[in-house]
Amino acid sequence: MHFKKMTGKNCYLSPINPEDAEKFTTWLNDPEVTRYLKTATHIISLHGEKEFLQNLAKEHVYTIVDIKTDNPIGTVGLAQMDHINRTAEIGIFIGDKNYWGKGYGTEAMSLLLDYAFKTLDLYSIFLRVYEYNERAIRSYKKIGFKQIGTRRKALRRDLKVYDIIYMDILSEDFYHTTQ
Q1: What is the tally of structural domains in the chain?
Q2: Is residue 116 a contact partner of residue 125, using CB atoms and an 8 Å limit?
Q3: 25 and which of 8, 12, 49, 50 could share a cystine (Cβ 3.0–4.6 Å)?
Q4: Which SUPFAM superfamilies match (predicted)?
C-alpha cells in the first residue's frame, strides 16, 4: 500500500513500503537500470532488499508512484542530512524503464526538493551523477542544479573510466527556476 505524502501531476511520493521488495530486487538486478547507480556491482537478494527497505523506511526516502496506476516506479530520497548546516545529498532512480524519459524523475525530484526546502528547512542539496547519464544531467539542470565540480576518472564501467559530476541547488535556485 502507498500513501500520498507529496503529490504532483503524474506521480506522488509515498513512504517506502518493504512489501515492494520484489519489484525493487528485480530493478536492482537489471544491468540497464544499475548502470546509472553505485549498486551496479552489488548482489541484491530479495531478503537483503526487504531488510534494506525496512531501514530506508525510517529515513526521508520515498517510493515514486504513478498517480494513475498506483504502481511504484522508483525511489527518491535524502541522505547525509545535516540540520545545523541545512544540507543533504539527494538521490533518485526510476527502476521501471517504461517511465524513463517521460518527466517522472524531474517531477519526483521537484516534489522532494520542495519538501526539503519548505518543510525540513534545508538550504543546500547536492548530488552525484555519472558523466554518461545525460538524461539525468538535463533533468537536474532543468530543475535548477548547477555543476560544482568533477571527480575525474573516478568510475569504471564497461572497461572504461568516467567522471563523477557533482551538482548542487540552493533553495533560491529552486524557487527561482520553478516560478
Answers
A1: 1
A2: yes
A3: 49
A4: Acyl-CoA N-acyltransferases (Nat)
Encode pLDDT of 76-114 as tens digits: 999 999 999 999 999 999 999 999 999 999 999 999 999
Are the C-beta atoms of residues 6 and 111 closer than 8 Å to each other?
yes
In this structure, is residue 125 part of a structural domain? yes
pLDDT tens-place string over residues 128-165: 999 999 999 999 999 999 999 999 999 998 899 999 99
Distance separating alpha carbons of residues 44 and 42, to the nearest angstrom = 6
Q: 62, 104, 140, 166: which one is catalytic?
A: 140
Residues spanned by the domain of 47: 6-178
Is residue 1, in this structure, part of any structural domain at all?
no
d(CA 98, CA 45): 23
CATH number at residue 163: 3.40.630.30
8 Å CB contact between 12 and 23: no
Q: Residue 178: its pLDDT value, please?
A: 53
What's the pLDDT score for residue 76? 97
Task: Answer whether residue 137 is part of any domain.
Answer: yes
Contacts of 54 (CB under 8 A, 6+ apart): 18
Strand order in the sheet with 72-82: 6-7, 11-15, 61-66, 72-82, 87-94, 124-130, 160-170, 146-157
Is 12 among the catalytic positions? no
Integer CA distances (angstroms), 131 to 36, 136, 137, 175, in order: 10, 10, 8, 26
